[in-house]
């Protein structure tokens, strides 16, 4: 009987620390992050089981080999045109970043570019995104990895319109042609639709106290979708169901949604609305707790979607606003910026 109790206790501890739907992003625009093997140790101290590398990087992939993590690796936006036009680019890329590591490193998804359609500086690449993804898929198929590793691309919230109510959300009409091609590709290959969802951005557009509460999972009354009658208690769920509604409007409601980035900056410029240590801890901590509870959303209850927190370390070499360099949950010395709820609990003995 005592042995059974010990087994059950260990099982409950393992389940409490096993969050297969919570991931984290690791960027490359910094010059002060710890060595890859130290980063691997930091990740192993958390309940996180998924890692997204914004750009494929061999050393961190080696460091995470034979460990619990599934991994998303990215093709940089600067390589998309070559990937689309050069028939040898994709096979060479797979040979360099996939074949030497898989399956010892559990690569699950390759993302071809990030936020191409809705970012003005990347708009010229829109015509290349589908051919680039198809070439990557063909290279995986040729390497006998088709179906084992999925190919997708990362979208920004900017592809969505009318997101104030989930039931009204749709993709912006200027992206119809590219979005149709993208969704057709994802459906045919069993790949997920990946989107960066930032309630922080929603608050910046509507900086009212009640909006901040809604974004930080602190709303007491929530917001009612007038078309469905469903009550949303936070912005994350609202944006997620809005994304699903946009997919349904295109007749692709059965495509899986993955939240490829979400987070809140812990500091910013004096002119920025919303950044702050307290807000960052509230958003990320409450989101992690929400995901752990497996509550789902009002439209899709009882299941948490794969969600990648942004991000492990600050990217101190990024340009732009100060907040763009202030998302890191860990500092370079591996102390926590704030309590995000991702650390493992201590063992029961």
Quick structural overview:
It contains eleven helices and twelve strands. The chain is an alpha/beta fold.
Task: Describe the protein's architecture and organization.
The longest helix is centred in the middle third of the chain and has 17 residues, at 126-142. The strands form 3 sheets. This protein has an 8-stranded parallel beta barrel with strand order 1-2-3-4-5-8-11-12, surrounded by 5 helices. A two-stranded antiparallel ribbon has the order 6-7. It has 11 helices and 12 strands. The chain has helices at residues 2-17, 36-44, 58-63, 80-85, 89-97, 126-142, 176-189, 199-205, 209-215, 235-249, 277-292, and strands spanning 19-26, 48-53, 70-75, 106-114, 150-155, 160-161, 170-171, 193-196, 223-224, 231-232, 257-262, 307-309. The protein starts with a helix and ends in a 40-residue tail after the last strand. It is of the alpha/beta class. Helix 2 links the parallel strand 1 (19-26) and strand 2.
